[in-house]
Every structure is written in C-alpha cells, then in structure tokens.
Design brief:
Elements lengths: L1 E2 L1 H13 L5 E8 L2 H10 L7 E8 L15 E10 L10 H13 L7 E3 L3 E4 L2 E12 L5 E12 L23 H24 L3 H9 L1 H4 L7 E4 L5 E9 L5 E5 L4 E4 L3 E4 L4
Parallel strand pairs: 2-3
Antiparallel strand pairs: 1-2, 3-4, 4-8, 5-6, 6-7, 7-8, 9-10, 9-13, 10-11, 11-12
Helix pairs in contact: 1-4, 3-4
Length: 271
C-alpha cells in the first residue's frame, strides 16, 4: 500500500466537515481495499469506522469472487462501520447499503437504479458493484465491511472484461485533471457518508423503508427477467417486491411467487 497523503488529508477534511466519525486512508495503489480493511478491523480494539480509497487495485473482487476491473476513472473504496449491538439479523444489510448508495448517486445521475441485491445500474449497464461482509474486531464488535467500485468514466476502451455491459456515472468529465480528482473525492465522500449512516442506523425499519420504495429503486421494474439459482435451475417472470428480510419476490410465468435469497437476475432482453 502506498499512501496518497494529499488526497487522504483533503478527503478526511470533507468527512469531518460533514460530521463523520470515519478515519480516512487514501492509497495510490493496493491489492484490495476490502482485504486491507478487514485486516485492520480484525487487528483493532477500536470502535471507530474506517474508509479506505485507492487510485488503483490489483486484486479487487466483487460478489461470488468475481474480479473487479478498474475502469478509466473510478471510485474504489471500502467503508467499515461498527454495527448496532442491539441488532442480530443482518441478512438485508447489503440491500440497505445498496439502496443508500443509489439514492446518493441519483443526485448526480437520475437514471441510477438498484439491481437486487446490490449492483447499481444506469441505462441498462452496470455502473457500480458492492461487496458487503461482516468482520469482528479484536474487541468482538461486529463491523460491516462494505466495498464499492463506481465507474465514474469508462474511457475510450471501457473495462477489459465484464459479464454485463458497463455503464458510467457521468457522460462527460471536467477537462482539467485536478477537477476530475476533486470530483472523485466528492463522489467518494458522499458514498462513504451514506454507507456510514446506513450501517449506524440499520434496523428492521430501514429494511421496511427500502421495501416501500422498491418500485422506484428496482432496475428491472416492469421487465421480464431470468433468475439463475445456485442449484443450476432458473426462473423467468417479473419482480414484484421484497420480502421482510430483503429477499426478492419474483412472480413466474405461471403466476407463482418465489422468494429468492440468492440468485443472479438479468433482464431477458440482455440475453
């Protein structure tokens, strides 16, 4: 890990002005901000959250162990937050964090939507991915470790490899390099603050809030989709909402409603 000290200081100042308790680290390059963050939490007795940002990652990964490829301009970040000790059910945490990120990104691009449970889609392509894990500190406190990679701009070539079409948050960037760096810091800070608040306030009520607004969040609302299940089978139909713990409700072509806890969902138009 090579520290980008100038960006670390600027980033920390932005967070502090917003009232955040997160301790910021900005690196020029690292293997994986998620791996670094988990190691730091496990070694610490502290109950203060962390935010790690990298200009480049050499071993970034997404859900199911997929490789995350850095686009031309991106935010590569992991936020760790100690979770409320009164909460015991965290199965919907990733969904709630994903919704918080989408609501924040919609301020910059109104087309941002959530692909269940935690990818951000814009205009039919993936603009961001989220990986959420739970890790205990040396003091035994459970921390959320939420890694997010956001495509700010794809560049002329776009990502080298992806299993879905890529998308970017912005169609056009400022011409000056300094302005692009400032834009990245602003996007990173807004997402870090949203993730911190989602984790600190996590409860059944926050899950209910996402469920109530799901029709406005769902990337595939009104579309026919295919849900690939872990056992190899698949279902086709339409998404009709979320269950109590954030499970996806899918109504198949025969009218039966299925509660999905783990599935890879794609619009049929993209096959």
């Amino acid at each position: 890990m090579h520290c980008n000290c100038s960006d670390s200081r600027s980033f920390q100042e932005i967070l502090q002005r917003a009232g955040s308790a997160l301790t910021a680290h900005w690196f020029e390059e690292t293997g994986s901000t998620n791996d670094d963050a988990k190691a730091m939490v496990r070694a610490s007795f502290d109950t203060v959250g962390l935010v790690l940002v990298a200009d480049r990652q050499s071993a970034g990964r997404g859900t199911r162990g997929r490789v995350w490829v850095n686009p031309a301009v991106s935010v590569l970040m992991t936020v760790t937050v100690p979770l409320p000790e009164s909460v015991r059910e965290f199965s919907a945490l990733s969904l709630v964090i994903g919704a918080a990120c989408v609501w924040q990104l919609q301020k910059r691009n109104a087309a941002a939507r959530l692909k269940w449970p935690n990818d951000v889609w814009i205009g039919g392509g993936k603009a961001a991915g989220l990986l959420c894990e739970l890790v205990k500190s040396r003091a035994g406190r459970v921390h959320a470790v939420a890694g997010i990679g956001v495509n700010i701009d794809l560049g002329s070539a776009g990502p080298a490899t992806t299993d879905v079409a890529p998308a970017a948050l912005f169609e056009k960037l400022p011409p000056a390099a300094a302005d692009v760096r400032a834009l990245r810091r602003d996007v990173a800070a807004s997402l870090a603050l949203a993730i911190e608040k989602a984790c600190r306030d996590f409860s059944a009520a926050s899950v209910d809030a996402v469920r109530a607004l799901w029709p406005t969040l769902d990337a595939f609302a009104g579309q026919r989709v295919r849900a690939q299940l872990p056992v190899g089978a698949s279902l086709t139909g339409r998404t009709v909402g979320l269950a109590a713990h954030g499970e996806l409700l899918l109504e198949d072509d025969e009218g039966r409603v299925h509660r999905l806890t783990d599935a890879r969902v794609r619009p049929l138009d993209n096959e």
